[in-house]
Design a protein that fits this description.
By secondary structure, the chain is α/β, with parallel strands linked by helices. It has 8 helices and 14 strands.
């Protein structure tokens, strides 16, 4: 039986602050139609695909930002997207801001906010959910920053781990996993899914063309290189395909670099977008390619040495090494 699936990175150009969900969803439906015409079975949209990247805007009162979030899927606003998914028979990754009323760590039910993604089956059912773990940015307004990055203010740390679910794409069962944006830079994200024999990692991101931290300069071309380096290394070291989809272009006066890519288990870029507009990158993925790495150099059962890795989970910040004092 063939283990070939066709995947698409459905990059979105900028979504302006003044534009409603109807504008974004109409564009997303057109991308789904184009992806279907090109034979795609899986379509991956960016992080926070339904709105502008609102964490760049500071609000003292968190309730003032509730309109950027979804409390249910599908909702009346997002129903046209789900209708298109069912009509076209596609499997779709969607990134969005989620409000959930559920118990916190103390057991108290309260309003909680997450940077979330879901995989939606061709039936319109949600297969599984992921909530972003590696949250960049800061909590309070920073007067020294040219652009605010308030993800730590508007989102809690994800509490679902890095699940992998086996679900059909057509007649092919696929081990699917998800991550969001900054997660791609952390090798632990990839390894946790690699340990679950992930075959297809889907991730969306909104990444600025310039580093706005004012702590040093990171050139635009290096921003792109570091993004692709992280994805290529994650795929190679965990024998998986990845579809990494960006928001791109000048959004509310702030430039997002795009460069959506599809990468194979040997770390090769198979396809990429080359514009800052709505765009598709499409590639055929033979899942049998995952076997080589998994059964040779990255045969985890044969070669991993967990007794040497304790520091990875026992320690958060870095510490200075011991000092050599001479013979």
């Amino acid at each position: 039986m063939s283990n070939l699936i066709t995947v698409a990175a459905a990059q979105l150009g900028p979504i302006q602050k003044a534009e409603g969900r109807d504008v974004a969803i109409a564009r997303m439906v057109r991308l789904l139609e184009r992806a279907h015409q090109r034979g795609a079975q899986v379509v991956v949209f960016p992080e926070l695909a339904l709105t502008t990247f609102f964490p760049r805007w500071y609000h003292e009162d968190l309730d003032e930002v509730d309109h950027w979030y979804e409390s249910e899927l599908p909702s009346p606003a997002t129903q046209p997207l789900f209708d298109a998914i069912k009509k076209l028979g596609l499997t779709v990754y969607l990134g969005y801001a989620e409000i959930a009323f559920e118990p916190d760590e103390t057991g108290v039910v309260r309003k909680r906010r997450f940077n979330t993604s879901v995989v939606i089956a061709p039936s319109g059912e949600i297969i599984f959910k992921y909530r972003k773990v590696h949250m960049p940015g800061h909590v309070e307004y920073s007067p020294t920053r040219r652009v605010q990055h308030l993800e730590k203010r508007y989102f809690e740390i994800g509490n679902l781990g890095f699940p992998v679910v086996r679900a059909p794409v057509g007649d092919v069962p696929v081990n699917m996993g998800m991550m969001l944006c900054n997660d791609r830079r952390w090798p632990e994200s990839w390894r946790v899914m690699g340990l679950q024999q992930v075959e297809l990692v889907m991730l969306g991101y909104n990444t600025p063309s310039l580093n706005m931290e004012n702590r040093g300069f990171e050139a635009h071309h290096l921003r792109v290189f570091h993004s692709e380096l992280s994805i290529q290394a994650g795929c190679y070291q965990n024998a998986t395909f990845a579809v990494a989809t960006a928001k791109a272009g000048n959004e509310d006066g702030h430039e997002l670099f795009g460069h959506s890519v599809i990468v194979n288990p040997q770390g090769e870029v198979m396809a990429r977008t080359t514009t800052w507009d709505d765009a598709l990158a499409v590639a055929d993925c033979d899942l049998d390619m995952c076997r080589l790495g998994r059964t040779t150099i990255f045969n985890f059962a044969a070669h991993r040495r967990t007794e040497a890795y304790g520091r990875i989970t026992e320690q958060t910040g870095s510490v200075e090494p011991s000092v050599w004092t001479g013979a």
